[in-house]
Specification:
This protein has helices spanning 16-24, 51-60, 84-88, 114-118; strands at 2-8, 29-35, 39-45, 64-68, 72-74, 94-96, 102-104, 124-126. The protein has 128 residues and is of the alpha+beta class. The protein has 2 domains: 2-68, ACT domain (Alpha-Beta Plaits, 2-Layer Sandwich), CATH 3.30.70; 72-126, Alpha-Beta Plaits, CATH 3.30.70. A 4-stranded antiparallel β-sheet has the order 2-3-1-4, with helices on one face. A hairpin with a 3-residue loop joins strand 2 (29-35) and strand 3 (39-45). It is elongated, with a radius of gyration of 17 Å.
């Protein structure tokens, strides 16, 4: 399960993700993070069965969490199977099937947005 975790330095300087791993024993994969001196946001992946436990512990430490059920939205009707998204994606979310039609593996998406900018037909958007 993917979660967006947002935290503010105003609430403290504790390492929230490390604290949650230590407290729960759940391994957390940080897929993307943007952190500055005032606030931070991270896209993390946790096992489905531990999602609620991780969310509760993070919120107890002052972070806010939002569960992502979808990452990249793909409009098949707009797609012309040009492959522009394939070449730009750092996570190999996109590929062609045997019939040279675009396929999407949402589970690999880290919400970088590069594919959205590269798509000439606006067939892709991020679920934020």
């Amino acid at each position: 399960m993917k979660l967006i975790v947002t935290f503010s330095r105003k609430r403290g300087r504790e390492p929230v993700i490390a604290q949650v791993v230590r407290d729960t024993g759940v391994l957390i994969n940080v897929e993307r993070a943007q952190i500055d001196s005032h606030e931070g946001e991270a896209l993390i992946e946790v096992p489905d069965e531990a999602c609620q436990l991780v969310r509760e512990r993070m919120e107890a430490l002052g972070a806010t969490t939002r569960r992502l059920d979808r990452t990249i939205l793909f409009d098949r009707n707009e797609c012309v199977d040009c492959g522009a998204c394939i070449s730009i994606c750092p996570q190999e979310v996109f590929s062609f099937d045997e019939a040279w039609r675009l396929t999407v593996d949402e589970s690999r998406c880290v919400l970088c947005g590069k594919c959205v900018l590269a798509c000439p037909h606006h067939a892709l958007s991020l679920q934020l």
